[in-house]
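INPUT
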Amino acid sequence: MKFYKVRDMDFLMDDNFPRPLVALAGNPNTGKSTIFNALTGLKQHTGNWPGKTVSLARGTFYHRNVKFCVVDLPGTYSLLANSLEEQVARNFILFNRPDVMLVITDATCLERNLNLALQIMEITDRIIVCVNLIDEAAKKGIYVDGDVLSKELGVPVVATAARRGIGLFELKEMIFKVYSGKVKPSPRKVNYGEELEKAIGELVPRLENTFSGRINPRWAALSIISGDYSIEDLEELVKIRDESREESAYGYSFFSQLPGNRGLK
Amino acid sequence: MDIHFFHSSRETGDSNDISHESTDVKDLIVEKIYEKAESITRKAVRYDRFREDLDKKIDLLLTSRVTGILFMLLLLGVIFWLTLIGANYPSQLLAKVLFGIQGFLESFLMSIGAPEWVNGFLVTGMYRTLAWVVSVMLPPMAIFFPLFTFLEDLGYLPRVAFNLDYFFKRAGAHGKQALTMSMGFGCNAAGVVSCRIINSPRERMIAILTNNFVPCNGRFPTLILLASLFIGGLAPNLGWLLASLTVSGLVVFGILITLLVSKLLSSTLLKGLPSSFILELPPYRPPHIGSIIIRSIYERTLFVLGRAVAVAAPAGGIIWLLAHIKFENQSLLAQAAAFLDPLGRLMGLDGYILMAFIAGLPANEIVLPILLMGYLAQGTMISPDDFTSLKELLVNHGWTTLTAINTMLFSLLHFPCATTLWTIRSETGGARWAVCAAALTTAVALLVCFITASLYRLVMWVIF
Amino acid sequence: MEKHVITLDRLPIGKTGRVAAILHKGLSRRRFLDLGFVPGTLITTYFTSFTGDPTAYRIRGTTIALRKEDSSKILVITE
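OUTPUT
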């Protein structure tokens, strides 16, 4: 179990994350930490025994002579920012723009795990879906067809049984390929139905103008339509983000000032 | 994070919710996402001889009326029993080695011509306290933490929350409080931080304020040692059994107090409607032994031990000084103890015991060594493996079974250690809740000890 | 067969129904949705705790425990 505080989130503003940056997201209990540990080995700051300030676990690994920085985001069921963990995860993906976004899913209950994967696909394209615990699933008579899944999602899929070390090399290979552009994921986004898609379609060009690519316009449109943020909120968000980038100091103010931050109590 | 603790309308969702207005759109979005997830899953996942019977069977066994509660209590007993038995020999060995080194240190200091007070301060004060803490704490932690991490990885802990939720509901608290309490067994500061898993501010605060009623690893050695000396000593052949039963009984008592105080808080200071309780029961997974050992030893055992050691050495030095700086022919330590004595006696304790608890504020681990240093006017400490002389020393200072029981109860219930208080402060965004936690727990400790002391005296008076 | 709409807490152990509506509001509603409690989802009553409450349900390949207070605000259709 790992836990985060608002003021710990200043690490999010740390623009000095070494690149290429790989972020791990996933539901709780999907073996995300096992994957993280398997990737980074002992080269990590662990999210130590809580009790003092905890930061996101960070680590590195080398593959094909590239040093990848890996960040383990908190385990969440969703990215709709209903809780602090979800906000941390969402804001990290939104603002730090990982070079490769690794979504860890549990083969034994893929359906619910895809909820998160599909949400993340709204924010970033550079996604790899990792279907973990295939050994556990096989024991229960559940088999996931990676090719079909990959075709349906439009993003690369790697099957792993991280605890047994199965699929880890393939995972690193895929991370490298997505990073280097050899594989270009093109997520097949959720269709929200005629009415909503029309509204999104109208908003996107305007948002593209306003934010000139600093926020994913489709995600911004969705969050405006669903009432999470107003356009002013988002402008404020980007402004504070830009300012704190310039200051390159602590981002505390950024998070305490988050406008319209409705999920957070 | 200044939380509005009394504003829980969002949690219960009954009024003025901001997201209310657009509920339909949000519902639609989530529905569409799940629709897609479902259709993808239908195409990509094949169910062959689908079975999850085993998990269900285990769950039925672990959560049913008779076996569920029995298993839980049995597990608690077995864990303490294993910890007690297993830690015994390594503790003795460590004590022998560490206390053996003392001789070398002393002769070394003498050979370089250090004055006697330097020797006393460094060796008798700092080193001995340090040696005590390490030899008493390290072995039980090195057994307890892996066992605990094993249960955590296995997926058993959410079942405990599931089993106990009804009682927490009755107490106006959240079932996940059971999880934060399990974390508290390791370290209360960690337990307090883990309260973040409870989303409702009101229920989270209840969990934070009561976390200290589960004994952490810093207090277990005190409980274990006193239980083996005074309760285990009552029946020489069944000593270990009696001692582990006593420790388990204390833990259960701590849980009862937690529920009682939670109820009290939720009907007074922290009134409010219960929030929704959604607990996932993840599938059981065979834990990975290697990762358990690495995580429990590196991240937990050594972290907690390191903190205790960092506090123990300076505290030992300071206490030694206090025991040797004399004012009007009496050491400062003795004067403080004399001042606290009447209050201590009232509760079946004494002044030295109370003083040791106060001086042990930085870390609970050092309470017993400080107490012993107080009793031994010359400030030399007994090795913790020397049971006979330990007990003799305590009995010579007027200890009875009541004193032992009440010291254990006070240790279980009293104010949180400084680290925990600090953590409460930072978790709740204000010192007032830390103060509240300290006052609440101390009041409970004083009250319970006073009651047991009075009862004991009454019984003694009736019998004799 | 006849269809009935009942609250989830009345769904007997071992029986399966389909989620018809979530009567929760606000944050609770969002949490249930996130876990896949959307209309049409199959849900099975799995087992109850030894105190009779909470109860564990099987939904979308996962086991979720709910208190009576919460499950009574979820409507399911049974056949």
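end of record. Confidence is low (pLDDT under 50) at residues 1-14, 45-54, 246-265 of chain A.
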